[in-house]
Amino acid sequence: MRSPVDDDGAASAPPQPRSGCAGAHLSPEGVTRGTRGETLVAIPCGDREEPLELVDGEQLLVQDVRRGRPILARKPVPNNAVPASIAQVDWLAFTIRPGNGRDVAWLRAQLQEVFNLPADAWRVSSRGWMGYTQRIDLGDFGLSAHGGERQRGTMHVELNAQACALVADWEGARAWGESLGARIMRLDLAHDDFEGLHVNIDIARAWYEGGQFNANGRPPRAKLIDDCGSGEGKTLYIGARENGKLARLYEKGKAQGDPQSPWFRVEVEWRSRSRLIPWDALVRPGQYLAGAYPCLQYLSAPQEKIRTIQKAVGITYQQMVRWVRTYAGKSLNVMTHVYRGDCESVLREVLREGVPKRLQPFSAFVPKALLERDVTPCLPSEKTFLGDYRKPIPQSGAPNGPK
Length: 403
Fold this sequence. Notes:
403 residues, disordered N terminus, 15 strands, alpha+beta, three-stranded antiparallel sheet, disordered C terminus, ten-stranded antiparallel sheet
C-alpha cells in the first residue's frame, strides 16, 4: 500500500473553462508541447473540448489559446467495448477553488457527505504541503491542504485506496466534482487478478515484447524490477510518471508479504501534467483502464473493492499471527501453563486496545474483512503450542525440553 503522501501533487489552481477559441490565429508550423518536446500540428479549433487527434491513445485537445498559439492537453479515451466493472478507483487527488465564502469546515462536511470519510479522521498538522501552508491529515485515508498566496484560494485533496473503498456513490462524486469545476490532479485505476491466471508478470512481459503497450507504433519506456526469487515480488513499469501516465503491473500478494501468493495487479496512474483527466472515469473505471493500452482490453474479471480489502487484510493478518508466534509464542505458552490452560485468562492479561500498525491502514475494514473471509489458521497444533499444562514446564537443556 502506498503512503497517503505521494511525491508530487497539487496545482496552484484549476483551469477555468473558456468559451472556445474561435477566431484565434494559429501558427501553421505547429507548436511544441509536452515533456518529450514532441511537435504537434496546430489546427484551428472551435471549442475547447474538440479533439484534434489521437496521441499515444489519448485525445489531443486545445485547452487554451495564448498569443495566438494553442495550449494543448491530452485526455484519456475510454474503450466502450469493455464493462465498466473490470477496474476500480484506487487513488483520487483533486484541486478546487470553492469560492463563495466556503472554508475548510465546508470542505470537511463535503468530504464526509460525498466521499464517506469519517468525521474523526480530520487531524490538523503543523506542516504545510506542496506549496500550501496548511496540511490536514485525514487519518489513514489521505490528506487535504489549503492556504498560501500562490495557491490563489484553492484547496487540494488526496484520497488513497482506503478512502476510495469508502465511496458508495461514484456517480454522486462525479457530479459534485464537475459542478465545482474541480480538476483531477491524479487518478489511479486498478484491476486485480487474485489467481494470476489472466495476467501475471510473464503475460505482462509478453504483452510488452509483442507491442501491446505501443501507441502510434512507438514502444513506451519500460522497466522491470526483479526480486531474483526472494519472494518480494516483481514489478513491470510502463511509461514514465514525469510524462503523466504510468502503468504498474506487479505481484501484489508478494508485495503485501505473502511470497507464495499468485495475486497480480494492473494499475494505471494518470497525472494532470498537460492532461485533462475526466471525472467520467470515476463511474467508468474499467473502460478508461482498458483504453489506456491495447492489451488491457483483455481484462474481464469484475472487480469488487471489498474482495481486494479482504485479500490485503488476510495476508497482513497472517503476517501478524506469525510475528506474535515468533516473538511472543513462548511467553504465551508459559502463561497458559500458569493459568492451567485457561486461554481466556491469558488473553485478558495481555490484550491492549487498538490495532497493530501494519493493520492500521485497513482499520475501517478489519472486523468486516476478517469475518467475511475464511481465516486459515497458521498456529501449530494445540498440543505443540500448549504442551501438557498438568505437568511442570520443562527446563531448557533438560531431557525433552525446549532447545
